[in-house]
Design a protein that fits this description.
CATH class of the largest domain: Alpha Beta
CATH topology of the largest domain: Mago nashi protein
Transmembrane segments: 16-35
CATH architecture of the largest domain: 2-Layer Sandwich
Distance between the termini: 111 Å
Keywords: Membrane, Transmembrane, Transmembrane helix
Strand content: 25-35%
Number of strands: 24
Largest sheet: 8 strands, mixed
Number of helices: 9
């Protein structure tokens, strides 16, 4: 075998040597150096040397459309003018699969020989090696080489950018590559990428411009120095059209911001039976759903999730960073009909999608949608007891607002006696009780508590977020009789409950009721 190989190599070397001599006879002046160099190390000339020789002989035979395709891709991918790029090397090759010899992890490549080219393009500072097919319609990047000292992208920033790109393209990080990273100085807090109607801090921000490459896709990110702030440059990026390319939601169509006690909101509309429903998750674990546009909707659906489920969902929202998709809409594909549009809002902003495009959404958005559907379905399957299911108090039944010197008010009615009493706590420490309907005011009673007690009670109202129960009523169970109904008010928040359901109220509300009863009973 060694003898055969030696004969094969000697024969090939002889052929190359003969070609070089003939070439030298044709042009002694300019090519004499080529002959000298080519024959200087004949003993070490292997098959790769043969390919290099063929490369030199065929560099100028690269088809123009392949050259144009490579230059166009390099220009767009690395944001370099085509005039500053040039093909410095090209070699005809036959690739052993449909991936042009460059397969991504988990990618399935057609097992067929593909004629094409190995092309090296450069801007004078860096070189990029491309594999292409014969006409340049298919091309892939094989490697990147830089000259001089390269400023290394911090690993934490690199991870942040790759994670953002992974979520945006719905691709694993293993299929993404940082193809360019340059230090930049942005002239505002929005990293030179302000959204419509957004105010940006006018401050110099040192950061990076990072280009992430995937198969046929390129994302351009602007970041700060640490990667804690990053934004996608939509105009400079090239994202494959999969039928759900996002568009910005017009400002006029954005829903209102969340109330401070709301963690998540979903508005659904359309479908075969066009109705619009709004579902909110409150920070006390309640999920409330009602039909929008329906007057006097006094019976919204109410469910309760456990504190653990609530905590896990909040952590997931924080981890998935939906701020990267803020105010984006993923429309349905052309020709779709009778689909349901969902508009979800978190503290990070609003996103819109539909049931047709749901499976093609970015990975982080899909994760949040799935978690939301799971938590909602679990709550629906395990309804809270009727005795603590709250209902909104009809507007016509709400008591008047408090006077500005009143801290808290309780109105009690019903029971065996059937009388109605009002008890108020004033900010000067006076506690007053009188019977409504008593023309002579004969049952008025007045006590006084310390300013310290007043402040402590006000702190209880704040700590237990009493305002989150705004205008809710916790009714008695069916069949109950002779119970006392309590209507309590603080600031602009009113809550109604009764002595039967008192022990089944939400814990925060129970804490407020307990503190109030302690004050009232201590001085009455």
């Amino acid at each position: 075998m060694k003898t055969i190989l030696k004969i094969y190599l000697t024969t090939n070397q002889a052929r190359i040597f003969t070609v070089l001599i003939l070439t030298g006879f044709l042009s002694i002046g300019s090519n004499f150096t080529l002959i000298k160099n080519a024959t200087a190390t004949p003993a070490n000339l292997m098959a790769e040397s043969t390919n290099e020789f063929i490369k030199e002989m065929t560099t100028n035979n690269l088809p123009r459309r392949v050259e144009a395709a490579v230059l166009r891709d390099a220009s767009k991918r690395w944001q370099i003018s085509i005039e500053d790029l040039q093909i410095v090397e090209s070699t005809p090759r036959t690739w052993n699969n449909g991936c042009l010899g460059i397969s991504q992890p988990g990618e399935i490549c057609t097992q067929a020989l593909v004629p094409g080219w190995k092309v090296v393009v450069s801007d004078g500072k860096q070189k990029w090696v491309y594999h292409t097919n014969s006409n340049g319609r298919l091309l892939r990047i094989a490697s990147t080489h830089s000259k001089g000292k390269k400023v290394k992208l911090p690993s934490s920033l690199e991870n942040a950018v790759l994670q953002a790109a992974s979520r945006r393209l719905n691709l694993p990080i293993s299929q993404l590559t940082i193809v360019q990273a340059k230090q930049r100085t942005w002239n505002n807090g929005c990293l030179n990428l302000a959204r419509p109607d957004e105010g940006c801090t006018q401050a110099i921000v040192n950061g990076w411009k990072v280009v992430v490459g995937a198969v046929d896709q390129t994302l351009v990110y602007h970041t700060d120095a640490s990667g804690s702030a990053l934004r996608l440059n939509e105009k400079k990026s090239e994202i494959a059209d999969n039928g759900i390319t996002p568009v910005m939601i017009p400002t006029s169509e954005l829903p209102p911001a969340l109330n401070k006690n709301v963690i998540f909101r979903q508005i659904s509309s359309g479908g075969l039976f066009p109705r619009t429903y709004e579902t909110v998750l409150l920070n006390d674990g309640r999920i409330i759903r009602y039909e929008k546009g329906k007057e006097n909707d006094l019976e919204p659906q109410v469910w309760q999730v456990s504190p653990q489920q609530l905590k896990e969902f909040q952590k997931l929202l924080e981890k998935q960073k939906l701020s990267e998709l803020r105010n984006l809409s993923y429309p349905a594909t052309q020709g779709s009909a009778d689909y349901i549009t969902y508009t979800i809002t978190t503290s990070d902003g609003t996103i819109q999608y539909n049931d047709v495009s749901r499976n093609n959404l970015p990975e982080n958005l899909q994760t949040v949608v799935k978690a939301w559907n799971d938590i909602r379905n679990i709550a629906i399957a395990n309804p809270i007891p009727d005795e603590i299911k709250p209902l909104p108090i009809p507007v016509s039944e709400l008591p008047p607002q408090l006077d500005r010197n009143v801290v808290f008010r309780q109105i009690s009615s019903g029971g065996f006696i059937g009388k109605t009493y009002e008890t108020i706590l004033l900010n000067d420490g006076r506690l007053m009780q009188y019977r409504i309907g008593d023309a002579n005011d004969s049952e008025r009673r007045v006590w006084r508590i310390s300013q310290q007690k007043v402040r402590e009670f006000q702190q209880v109202l704040k700590d237990h977020r009493f305002n989150e129960f705004e205008n809710l009523s916790y009714p008695a169970t069916n069949g109950s009789a002779d119970y006392i109904t309590y209507t309590v008010t603080s600031d602009d928040t009113t809550v109604r409950y009764n002595d039967i359901s008192q022990n089944n109220l939400p814990k925060n509300l129970q804490a407020v009721v307990k503190a109030w009863n302690q004050i009232r009973k201590s001085y009455q």
